Amino acid sequence: xxxxxxxxxxxxxxxxxxxxxxxxxxxxxxxxxxxxxxxxxxxxxxxxxxxxxxxxxxxxxxxxxxxxxxxxxxxxxxxxxxxxxxxxxxxxxxxxxxxxxxxxxxxxxxxxxxxxxxxxxxxxxxxxxxxxxxxxxxxxxxxxxxxxxxxxxxxxxxxxxxxxxxxxxxxxxxxxxxxxxxxxxxxxxxxxxxxxxxxxxxxxxxxxxxxxxxxxxxxxxxxxxxxxxxxxxxxxxxxxxxxxxxxxxxxxxxxxxxxxx
Length: 261
Known about the structure:
It is built from 10 helices and 13 strands. The chain has helices at 40-47, 67-71, 73-82, 99-104, 116-125, 141-154, 171-183, 195-201, 219-223, 226-232; strands at residues 2-11, 14-24, 29-33, 55-60, 63-64, 83-86, 159-163, 187-192, 204-209, 212-218, 235-242, 245-252, 258-260. The protein has a 6-stranded mixed sheet with strand order 6-7-8-3-9-10, sandwiched between helices.
């Protein structure tokens, strides 16, 4: 379904993505991991056709995705139906006067008939029943994220791209979302800082560091390898002196607890 070959992306003379190559098959659940600045958000925007590589190729369902390809209306509608992205910056996705209008906004331009049953279900699992007539910009950060998530899920894309989808969600809503994604038949690529959540969102991890892939394989092969975790920046080492002896610890970014070494 997704194939990237030697993707290179520069922005303001800075190398953001460096020679990325990978394939993702239909139905795969992939977790995109990496610390801030590793290139995760840029890669997701590229996969959504919002940015284009300086060199290299990105193919979606056999179609080479370029700016010229998306200029054709039929190609644009096809791609936007099949590939949907949740932005990390939620405010960039919201602009309607009510939550209900926000949820229905994409259906007409994409020539999609609203599925009322699906809409009610997604509204329910995200806890938005009492927010449908609210002005989106008056909502809390977590509520805005729920609205944006609902908009993405309602399109029912074959490729679902989510950039830090649970960053502002409570535990119950996060659990509902994880369960929903896991039961979807679509391909998903989800970025997260949480190693615990990563193990629940997919079976394959693609790990970025400074715009390069440093690991691509089973999630457990990454999360259980201290050397790889340290290389990727998910563990840091510090030393403390107790009773005259020095001890070193590695601590996972965004995770509780320390691992003595």
